[in-house]
Amino acid sequence: MRVVLPSIERPKKLPVVLSHNEVRLLLKAPKLLKHRLVLAMLYGCGLRNFELCNLQLKDLDLERMMLHVRQGKGRKDRYVPLCAMQIRGLRKYIRAERPVTWCFNGNDREGNPVALSTTGVRWIVNEARKHSGIPKVVTTHSLRHSYATHLLEMGLDIISVKDLLGHADIQTTLTYLHVAQLGRQRPFSPLERLYGP
């Protein structure tokens, strides 16, 4: 007779989510417009690091205020909205930097323009975190987590958030319901009421 032991579930880690104020601090930390825009695109569009690196000028529809994310995870395309602030920044950046193909350029070893690397994006996020004074561990994906959580807290439905993130399975998106502060009454500490009025 064979004994089958139940499988032990791995602990599920909840994502790091920035507050609205922390996002503002992070966005204003870089001196370069390009770096501020990289952060604004990661947070404001919920992009994955490699999706940001693959952005081309042809993917920007500034008139319709939409961004075409091509071949995201699972080789799926999707559209995400851009806000007026991002569009103003993008127009100013494009006029000044004159990128040709990629929205955000890096340089290869010979100094030729290439798409910004995922390492370059991580460096931008890390430097911004250091200069902002935010003590949390902030990664490129923290901005995507914050995007999803903030949208839910602002009242967007879970199916729309799933589509904007490009998730194949709703279960992945449901994680954000554990960190979003939703419901009729926000959670609070009992200490708040113990000594309160």
From TrEMBL:
InterPro entries: DNA_brk_join_enz (IPR011010), Integrase-like_cat_sf (IPR013762), Integrase_catalytic (IPR002104), Tyrosine_recombinase_XerCD (IPR050090)
GO biological process: DNA integration; DNA recombination
Organism: Arenibacter nanhaiticus
Residues in Tyr recombinase domain copies: 13-189
Protein name: Phage integrase family protein
Keywords annotated in UniProt: DNA recombination
UniProt KW Metal-binding keyword: no
GO terms of molecular function: DNA binding
Alphabetical list of PROSITE patterns matching this protein: TYR_RECOMBINASE
PANTHER family: PHAGE INTEGRASE-RELATED (PTHR30349), PROPHAGE INTEGRASE INTD-RELATED (PTHR30349:SF64)
Highest taxon in the source lineage: Bacteria
Keyword Transferase among record annotations: no
Entries under Pfam families matching the protein: Phage_integrase
